Amino acid sequence: MIFTASQIAGILEGDVEGNPEIAVHKLAKIEEGEKGALTFLANPKYTSFIYTTKASVTIVNRDFVPDHRLETTLIKVDDAYKSFSKLLEYYNQVKNNKVGIEEPVFRADTATHGKDFYLGAFSYLGNNVKIGDNVKIYPNVYIGDNVTIGNNVVIFAGAKIYSETLIGNNCVVHSGVVLGADGFGFAPSENGEYIAVPQTGNVILEDNVDIGAGTTIDRATLGSTILRKGVKLDNQIQIAHNVEIGEHTVIAAQTGIAGSTKIGKHCKIGGQVGIVGHIIIGDRVKIQAQSGIGRNVKDDEILQGSPALNYGDYNKSYVHFKNLPKIINRLEHIEKKD
User: Fold this and answer.
1) Confidence band of 22 (pLDDT split at 50, 70, 90)
2) Which of 38, 65, 247, 260 could be bridged to 228 by S-S, CB 3.0 to 4.6 A?
3) How far apart are the two ends of the chain, measured CA to CA in Å?
């Protein structure tokens, strides 16, 4: 896609200083800019690069005044960082604005979809699937029976959406995601074998939920596994059956949450965190990476370690832990004196 400086200024409500007809077709960091690239300057630490960048167009704040001659055309806006982010969003919308149904695909006769729909090749839509407007489903996606998908949803290649899953509006499901596989439910028999307990519930994603690549979210045994509105999950996360995650909670990669645990609103959970089942984690909780959570957690706690301690207590304890060899040497020295 090719845009001129004047077209970009129109999108961003900015002013051009330089050649309004100069064209760009790619994005770049300011220090790596080259001809045909669009970049931006928001952090003053990078100001020196604006005098050496080869980028054709640079977005800057309105108060930027160059010290000497520039090779790049400027677009002046109120907030360069926000404007560049807006442009990235616009670029993605244009790039992903696919419509139509490719072949071959399988669509059950009872599957329905709204306007501006895209279905990539080798995808499968089961019985009674209901899909809203402006939904983009990329190739090799499986969508099982009785799945409902809202408006403005993107499901990337290779995702698997099991039956009865409900997906709200403005959700993004990345490649390799599995929604609605059976929860890890097995009961021991008298002879020591494990018998699968039927998992008859479903998965619900409310509005504005993002699911990273390779993440798995299991269906409930009974009822629903629920991700409330605005939840953001990184790649390769495991969410077990009957878990509930509160609004606008974010979770980093490789975290595992065991069954029936409830997590509150606006929590921040680092990578490789392990959380046991059947506990309640409050609102606005922060859990540092690689922590192990084995108890209920109150609102606003900050935790670190395995098993996790209060963040401040952990840091104080770690100071002593680091000094253990010195402390042992001192004790041994005292014992020898005695």
Assistant:
1) very high
2) 247
3) 82
Contact 146, 126 (CB under 8 A): yes
Question: Residue 317 has which token pair?
Answer: 């304890």
Q: How much is the pTM?
A: 0.81
Query: 211 pairs with which residues across the strands?
Result: 173, 233
The verdict on whether omega for the bond into residue 198 sits within 30 degrees of 0, i.e. cis, is no
pLDDT single digits (tens) 268-325:
999 999 999 999 999 999 999 999 999 999 999 999 988 777 888 888 877 877 888 8
Asked if 148 contacts 167 with a C-beta cutoff of 8 angstroms, the reply is yes
Across the beta sheet with 292-293, what order do the strands follow? 106-107, 124-125, 142-143, 160-161, 178-181, 216-218, 238-239, 256-257, 274-275, 292-293
Whether the bond between 139 and the residue before it is cis, its omega within 30 degrees of 0, is: no
C-alpha torsion angle, residues 108, 111, 112, 116 (rounded to 10): -60
Asked if residue 140 lies in contact with residue 157, where contact means CB atoms within 8 angstroms, the answer is: yes
For the chain, the average pLDDT equals 94
**Residue 112 has what pLDDT?**
98
Q: Using one digit for the tens of pLDDT, what is the confidence trace for 117-176?
A: 999 999 999 999 999 999 999 999 999 999 999 999 999 999 999 999 999 999 999 999
State yes or no: is 241 an active-site residue: yes
Tokens of 107: 């669509």
* Active-site residue identified among 25, 68, 174, 241: 241
Rounded Cα distance, 141 and 176, in Å: 9
Query: To which residue do tokens 């959700």 refer?
Result: 171
**Closest C-alpha among 259, 329, 328, 245 to residue 287:** 245
Cβ(318)–Cβ(304) under 8 Å? no
